[in-house]
Amino acid sequence: MSYNDRFIRACRGEQVDRLPVWYMRQAGRYDPDYRKIKENYSLLEICKRPELAAEVTLMPIKKLGVDAAILYSDIMNPVASIGIDFDIVANVGPVIANPIRSAADVDKLKPIDVEGDLSHVLETIRILDRELDVPLITFAGAPFTIASYLIEGRPSKSYIRTKSLMYSEPAVWFKLMDKLGDMVIAYLRAHIGAGGKAFQLFDSWVGALAPHDFKTFVLPTIERIFSELSDLPQPKIYFPGVASGELLPTLTNVKADVIGLDWRVPINEGRRRLGGSFAVQGNLDPYVLTAPMEVIKEHAKAIIDEGIKQPGFVFNLGHGLFPEASLDKLRELTEFVHDYSAEAIKA
Ligand code: CP3
């Protein structure tokens, strides 16, 4: 089979024959074969076995017919290399043994050593580069989202300790953003060196901030990350996560190619707020997938009709897949987006 570059072309704002589709969290617990592997290995154990991590990455490609693969890993993986001891606890998420709460805790963080500590991640990317006939998207967590786990110690709804540190001790906060920014830049550059074809920076929880605070406390580091990586020709995606609609007008100077939208902002409105300089990706509410197939298709149609009005659109969800999602519905949705958008683009 020939290489499918539809996703890369859409990221660059080029014409496509039909819309590319991939799903955030497309490798995961909704798939019975994945659950079988999870009976014997934890997420971190899978990540440390490159052959197995590559196999899990490949699972949704064949089953769903998507146009891109996303590396099986977790946003927390690189923090092991800067000196953070963590675990991914089932049905909870990342849990940190010694949360970061003080200037001394931030000072202790080491520079990342990707080749030394994360060679298994690079090896997984190399295997996938040989085996895939669609582009491999690699990813990192963005500094705010990573910091929220490091500071809270576990998933949080309020981000109270994170915001408290940010507002009360800005010097400590900015030092932490700098160190996490350095980590992300080195980590993503190594991914591309190993064969990654695009990357996404997941800022899943930054929508918790007011636009003014996002601009002051987070955006400078986001701009620095994409500027320092701007010599790489591979498409770069920034996903500002859930409830991020109000942040979109602030992103003008981020040197990303694509911005991921959540489902609260219609595609046209998202494009308008972004000022026209980015491709966009999104944004079906993942929980629409619990509805009958006709309802799912109606929602997808509305997104596609807006998406195809301009080049530079990637069909995705507005946030990650959840464990109860149905493989059959996802396969049917992918086919529907391909067929319906192909007809609409021709017309
Ligand atoms: O998208 C993919 O298919 C690639 C794999 C991937 C995982 N995590 C594997 C995983 C990706 C892209 C991530 C990113 C990630 N991890 C994010 C950003 C994306 C988002 O959803 O906003 C965040 C916030 C995390 C942190 C994290 N890891 C959480 C909140 C959880 C869920 C805890 C739970 O059990 O519900 C995890 C665990 C995790 N990471 C799972 C998977 C498949 C589920 C548990 C497992 O299978 O072991």
Structure description:
One of its GO terms (molecular function) is uroporphyrinogen decarboxylase activity. Pathway: Porphyrin-containing compound metabolism; protoporphyrin-IX biosynthesis; coproporphyrinogen-III from 5-aminolevulinate: step 4/4. Its EC number is 4.1.1.37. It catalyses: uroporphyrinogen III + 4 H(+) = coproporphyrinogen III + 4 CO2. This is Uroporphyrinogen decarboxylase. By secondary structure, this protein is an alpha/beta fold. The chain has one domain: TIM Barrel, CATH 3.20.20. The strands form two sheets. The chain has a seven-stranded parallel sheet. Helix 8 crosses helix 10, helix 10 runs parallel beside helix 12 and helix 14 runs parallel beside helix 15. The protein is globular. The model has no long low-confidence stretch (mean pLDDT 97). The structure holds coproporphyrinogen III. Coproporphyrinogen III (CP3) binds next to strand 3.
Topology:
Blueprint (H helix, E strand, L loop, with lengths): L5 H6 L20 H9 L2 H5 L2 H15 L4 E2 L15 E4 L3 E4 L6 H6 L5 H4 L1 H13 L4 E6 L1 H10 L7 H9 L1 H25 L3 E5 L8 H7 L1 H10 L7 E4 L18 E3 L6 H8 L4 E6 L8 H15 L5 E5 L9 H20 L1
Parallel strand pairs: 1-4, 4-5, 5-6, 6-7, 7-8, 8-9
Antiparallel strand pairs: 2-3
The structure holds coproporphyrinogen III.
Features:
TIM Barrel, 15 helices, globular, binds coproporphyrinogen III, seven-stranded parallel β-sheet, alpha/beta
A few lines on this structure:
The protein is 47% helix and 11% strand. It is of the alpha/beta class.
